[in-house]
Amino acid sequence: MSDTLPFTLANPDWFTSAECRKADPGLFSPDTETARRLARAQAFCAVCPVVAECLTWAVRRGETGYWGGTSTAQRNRMRRRRSRSKCPRCSVEQPVSFTSLLPDGKADPQQVCLSCGLSWKAATAPAALDRAV
Fold it and tell me: Given CB 3.0 to 4.6 Å as the disulfide criterion, which of 11, 25, 102, 111 pairs with 15?
């Protein structure tokens, strides 16, 4: 992507580290979202160091297009379907559960806290953060 993405506010701090900055902006903001286009976008997201921040940004702001390895429809479902667990970092209840696709096509269930941005595998929380805050 480039710095000319259709952000409604100034680019967030994490954007300078985003892997998608190297891609055509049209890849992440298509007129029509398809599984094939999502898979192409996810190839960038799979190696991106700020994928959790990107996903959190998009979920919180209701962005359209491909963000954090997800489609608009997937993020809409995330906002509706919340887990009852707590974030291991900040103890906020109801982190968002989602499943992204790994490069080999396998499902990768994860959760992300919309309060602090931490993400983890849905089955287990990060060991270093298991203790109560």
Answer: 11
pLDDT in tens, 16-58: 889 988 888 889 988 899 999 999 999 999 999 998 888 888 8
d(C-alpha 1, C-alpha 17), whole Å: 11
Q: Label residue 108 exposed, middle or buried (CB < 10 Å: 0-12, 13-18, 19+).
A: middle
User: Within the chain, how many helices (H) and strands (E) appear?
Assistant: 4, 3
Backbone angles phi, psi at 80, to 5 degrees: -85, -35
Strands 96-101 and 119-121 come out as unpaired
Q: Which 3-state string (H, E, C) describes 74-126?
A: HHHHHHHCECCCECCCCCCECCEEEEEECCCCCEEEEEECCCCCCEEECCCCC
Which residues are CB-contacts of 24 (< 8 A; sequence separation ≥ 6)? 1
pTM of the full predicted structure?
0.57
Eight-state DSSP code of residue 12: P
Locate the domains of the chain by residue range: 13-129
Ordered strands of the 107-112 beta sheet = 96-101, 107-112, 119-121
